[in-house]
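[recover] target loaded
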């Protein structure tokens, strides 16, 4: 009986020393408004304070950060890149290891066209379930895959997959030398089977446009691709300039 108890105790200790399980995990969100003011994020503000995390840029400047999460491609991304090239806009792309492995040509194109390539973990991992050592593997493995393909170093900017986070995991990200980038403008564009109209998409991004806005788009969205050119034109007409996350 003592041996069984000792074995269970050892397994318990091994589990909690090799894996980190969060009891206070969150999914990032904001309160939308139509007044072109910085959205409120409520209790999340206290959680991200001091973690080198951003959900907006400089709220005193008419600057916009266009960001894309890219876990895979369904034919929309090449067209998105064409639009960005035509409009002379540089964006920030958060990639996974699977994307780099399956779509090397697109990865190279984004890099060589001057876009900022950022870290979304190698396996699209939930960082609230990772120890700092496991997190380091996820981040460095992606960096190595990107460097081996492009010969370029990946910038130290990170976005949590599915926006899942807690304070401990964000502090772990910071301790590894990364800045975390959330967003202040987004909608459920990732559902490829439930795409919205062009007008709906424009409304979601333009009605709450504000200084320092970080726009989150998913590169698999046909709605985003169809609305992107018009969104860029209207953002420019409102006096905003586009920045990449390295300006945060």
């Amino acid at each position: 009986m003592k041996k069984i108890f000792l074995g269970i105790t050892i397994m318990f200790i091994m589990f909690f020393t090799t894996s980190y399980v969060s009891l206070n995990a969150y999914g990032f969100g904001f309160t939308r408004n139509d007044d072109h003011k910085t959205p409120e994020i409520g209790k999340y503000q206290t959680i991200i304070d001091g973690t080198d995390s951003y959900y907006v840029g400089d709220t005193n400047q008419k600057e916009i950060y266009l960001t894309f999460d890219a876990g895979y491609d369904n034919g929309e991304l090449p067209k998105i890149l064409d639009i960005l090239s035509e409009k002379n806009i540089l964006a920030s792309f958060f990639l996974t290891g699977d994307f780099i492995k399956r779509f090397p040509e697109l990865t190279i194109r984004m890099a060589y066209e001057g876009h900022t390539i950022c870290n979304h973990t190698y396996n699209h991992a939930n960082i609230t379930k990772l120890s700092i050592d496991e997190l380091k593997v996820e981040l460095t493995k992606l960096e190595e895959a990107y460097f081996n393909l492009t010969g370029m170093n990946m910038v130290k900017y990170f976005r949590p997959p599915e926006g899942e986070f807690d304070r401990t995991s964000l502090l772990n990200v910071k301790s590894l030398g990364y800045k975390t980038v959330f967003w202040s403008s987004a909608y459920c564009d990732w559902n490829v089977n439930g795409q919205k109209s062009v007008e709906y998409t424009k409304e979601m991004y333009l009605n709450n446009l504000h200084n320092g806005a970080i726009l989150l788009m998913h590169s698999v969205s046909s709605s985003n691709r169809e609305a992107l050119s018009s969104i860029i034109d209207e953002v420019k007409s409102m006096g905003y300039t586009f920045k990449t996350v390295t300006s945060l």
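[recover] notes: The CA atoms of residues 185 and 205 lie 6 Å apart.
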